[in-house]
Design brief:
137 residues; 7 helices; binds adenosine-3',5'-cyclic-monophosphate
Length: 137
């Protein structure tokens, strides 16, 4: 059993895809262990993506992630990290496989609809950014 952090980004929320995205997670056997709709401040978005702070796209990323509400979820299941990444597809939707979330809903690499943790350690850090033990049901 593993946990991973999933975030539906502002484009996914704005375009009305919350339900369809969550349905894909549930159909794949991932359980929602904690969930919250939240509008991140620029400061919070900057902290969440701190690992990318030296990258040229950092400021645009922070501006976009703080441009509207996101849905943060802790997903739980067997191989949850890899399963979520498979459902999301490649970071750049132009390279994402058919039937993935990013292929079906994302417009560009900047507005790519979902974020998912890439490893066990990152998942732990990202989950604790949004949730504490009492948020888990
Ligand atoms: P995400 O998985 O949320 O992690 C960091 C985000 O930065 C990524 O999705 C993209 O939306 C965004 N980004 C923009 N440009 C790039 C790039 N060249 N490489 C990786 N991520 C990028």
């Amino acid at each position: 059993m593993e946990r991973t952090l999933s975030m539906i980004k502002p484009d996914g929320v704005r375009n009305g895809h919350i339900g369809e995205i969550i349905a894909r997670f549930e159909k794949a056997g991932l359980k929602i262990a904690a969930m919250r709709l939240q509008h991140l401040t620029k400061e919070e978005a900057g902290k969440f993506y701190e690992v990318h702070s030296e990258r040229p796209f950092y400021q645009d990323l922070v501006d976009f992630i703080s441009s509207g509400p996101i849905v943060a979820m802790a997903l739980e299941g067997e191989n949850a990290i890899a399963k979520n990444r498979e459902l999301m597809g490649a970071t750049n939707p132009a390279e994402a496989a058919e039937g993935t979330i990013r292929k079906d809903f994302a417009k560009s690499i900047d507005e790519n609809t979902v974020h998912g943790s890439d490893a066990v350690a990152t998942a732990k850090t990202e989950i604790s950014f949004f949730f504490t033990d009492k948020d888990f049901v």
